[in-house]
Amino acid sequence: MFDIKVIHILTQVFRLSSSCLTDWLLPASCLLCGDNTHDDMPVCQPCQLDLPILPHHCFQCAQFLPTCTSDVVKCGICLNNPPGFAATYALFPYEPPIIQWIIRLKFHHQLHIARALGKMLSHHIQSRWYAGKALPDVIIPVPLHPSRLRERGFNQALEIAKPVAADLRLRLDRTGIRRIRHTAAQSSLPAASREENIKNAFTVTRQYSGQVIALVDDVITTGHTLRECSRLLLRQGAARVDAWCCARRG
Ligand SMILES: [Zn+2]
Ligand SMILES: [Zn+2]
């Protein structure tokens, strides 16, 4: 069996990316237990049972709703102040082990986690969320400000969106939304300051007349970032915006 040293030599000789070779040569191993997985999923079947399940939630922003109101499908915020995006599809609640995956991805540069999350997203999109429905025309990852991008070296939303676009054969638009103002991390602010913090942080200059767009982000917290991005896309003619996220904070 090929090991990491062989892959390193092959990447040098053939000038290929190591992720591409790793995916090709090594069997996928489970993100949780490390065992081989056999169905191209990043978490093995026994471990899938241990993953947290998104509780009953608002279909528009994925905010958790009390289970006693199981007939209610929209939260009070979306009823009183509807966001531009039509629906939010989130894989998991922001709980262990998802929190650790996001931290390893963003702060320890473990990009294989972005590929794994992207694989899980495309699986859910095809088999559940959009089963029997038309897929969006284009995928747009929520961008980082250039200074944050330089500091981190990559945009986690883009890295998650890449395998989704490849699996679903959708156009990946990397530059449709640009971040023009550096803002404090939304997660570092109290909820009341987040709307103000994100105002005028983005710009969209391209036309999206009649297109259905999927916005991709790693974590949705209050939804202000996605609200601002979808508002700008709709202003540029988009017919509908959906949000695809890996995790929802309650
Ligand atoms: Zn496992
Ligand atoms: Zn809502």
From TrEMBL:
Could you tell me which residue ranges the Double zinc ribbon domain spans?
21-78
Q: Which UniProt keywords apply?
A: Glycosyltransferase, Transferase
Specify one Pfam family: Pribosyltran
What Gene Ontology molecular function terms does this protein carry? glycosyltransferase activity
- InterPro entries given for it? ComF/GntX_DNA_util-trans, DZR_2, PRTase-like, PRTase_dom
Q: Where is the Phosphoribosyltransferase domain?
A: 157-248
CDD domains reported for this sequence: PRTases_typeI (cd06223)
Tell me which family the UniProt entry assigns to this protein.
Answer: Belongs to the ComF/GntX family.
What is the name listed in the Swiss-Prot or TrEMBL entry for this protein?
Orotate phosphoribosyltransferase
> Gene name on record?
pyrE_2
